Input
Amino acid sequence: MQPEEILANATTVAVVGLSRDPAKAAHGVPATLQAHGFRIIPVHPSATELLGEKVYRSLKDIPEPVDLVDVFRPAAEAPGIAADAVAIGAKALWLQQGIVSAEAKRIAEEGGLEYVENRCTAVVRAVAAISKN
Output
């Protein structure tokens, strides 16, 4: 599947590494997705609420189905996140712009997930005019 199709097919997006800092892409990109009707589920080690949503410590703590796992963490963490995405039954794993991991790709694809790396979900959303509103 192409990135545009993966994003168009997603409604619920778990964002691993969603930032508290509005100046960072790891905050602005998920906020943009949320503004366009995507359900955002923040995953952060210490925050309790981000973008008006309850924060979970890990993907495995999320009590509902996740379509897409959007990753704003260093590439070294991507394989573990990929394994968790497979474990929770996510449909796709997306590593944001600048993040590349052959190991995460292998884990995701072997686990049956669609996979995108080194692309920005907000840019793909804008170019393809994808909105859930």
